[in-house]
Amino acid sequence: MPGPIIDLSLYDDEQALLAGLRRGDPDACTCFVKRFAPLVYARALHLLGDADDAENVLQTTFIKACAALPEYTGAGSLSSWLYRIASNEGLMLLRQKRPQVALDAVGELAPDDAVTLHQTIWAVDPARNALDGELRREIAQAIAELPDALRAVIVLRDIEQLSTEETAERLGISPGAVKVRLHRARMRLRETLARYVEATKNE
Amino acid sequence: MAQHDHHHCLDLIDLLNDYLDGELSAESCAELEEHLRQCPECEALLSSLRQTVNILHHFDDLPPPLPPTLEERLIGHMQRHMQTRPH
Predict the structure, then answer these.
(1) Touching check for B30 and chain A: CB below 8 Å?
(2) How far is A40 from chain B (nearest CA, A)?
(3) Contact status, residue A186 vs residue B59, Cβ threshold 8 Å
(4) How far apart are CA A67 and CA A89, in angstroms?
(5) In a domain, B1, yes or no
(6) Is residue B18 in a domain?
(7) pLDDT tens digits, residue range A70-128?
(8) Which residues contact B41 (CB under 8 A, 6 or more apart)?
(9) Which residues of A touch B60 (CB under 8 A)?
(10) What whole-number distance in Å separates Cα of residue A152 and Cα of residue A157?
């Protein structure tokens, strides 16, 4: 059953949204979710590669954000604050669930097989094609299949676009380790994309 | 020619991401660019790697909406939570 129709523009303004949330207005709560939850969920899904885990992170993030609202000073944007909570929750869950793959261990990754240089001429417009449903699913699948340690780096570094240093700090590894993992992850994703581009070229 | 030695290409592959991220020293940059001018394979690899990174940068520009039942659950959960917490 569809939910109540709510005028989302009512809370377009962040200050109005914050005030509504602090008052406990249910419409403010709905607007908060509709506006920010898709990206929080998408990022949690990239990081954890599992829908149940991503839902868990989504719920915890929003509940924690509501609980912390009285202390939120409004420095920086509301979205950055929320995504930071989500990213911390995601990393914490990843560590809890997969202690066998320590995100901060160095040298736990087997060296990649000889680099495959899949040659193909790409005529891809990233901005347009990232929105293409099929390509999006291919990339999401390829990210989900990366080992945890590589996936965490590619999500923080390339999707969230944190710096090398900030990624290193969040994962508790050295900047050098970030670079090594980023290189491996990007090369693997490049291979997936190369195969996709070649397959669709011949259709 | 040294630049077309396969091992030299493999050495430089490790630098491509730093190059794309602007984290390569001026000296290494110059060496890599010199190689790229002469090696179409590495140039093509760089180009496809650049596009991979661009796609990832844009990947969440328009995240898909939440599955409707998940959205309902989350809103319900939060509204209950807000009613029970002290104001």
Answers:
(1) no
(2) 9
(3) no
(4) 15
(5) no
(6) yes
(7) 788 777 788 888 999 999 999 999 888 876 555 655 444 555 544 555 555 565 555 55
(8) A117, A119, B9
(9) 39, 42-43, 159
(10) 8
- The whole-angstrom separation of Cα B14 and Cα A47 is 25
Nearest CB partner across the interface for B62, out of A41, A131, A164: A131
The CATH number of residue B77's host domain is 1.10.10
Go through B28-42 and write b for each residue having 16 or more CB atoms within 10 A of its CB, e for each that does not: eeebbeebbeebeeb
Distance from CA of B39 to the nearest CA of A (A): 13
How many DSSP H helices and E strands does chain A contain? 9, 0
Q: Considering its fold, how many domains does chain B have in total? A: 1
State the complex-level ipTM: 0.83
B-contacting residues in A 15-74 (Cβ below 8 Å): 21-24, 26, 29-30, 32-34, 37-39, 41-43, 46, 55, 58-59, 62-63, 66-67
* Phi, then psi, of B64 in degrees rounded to 5: -65, 150
B6 vs A163, higher pLDDT: A163
For residues A34 and A4, the answer to whether their CB atoms sit within 8 Å is: no
Measured CA to CA, the distance from residue A10 to residue A7 in angstroms comes to 6
Q: How far is B40 from chain A (nearest CA, A)?
A: 10
Flag whether residue A186 sits within 8 Å of chain B, measured between CB atoms. yes
More confidently predicted of B20 and A13? B20
Range(s) of the domain holding residue B29: 6-84
Q: Is A194 on the interface with B (CB under 8 A)?
A: yes
Q: Does A176 touch chain B (CB under 8 A)?
A: no
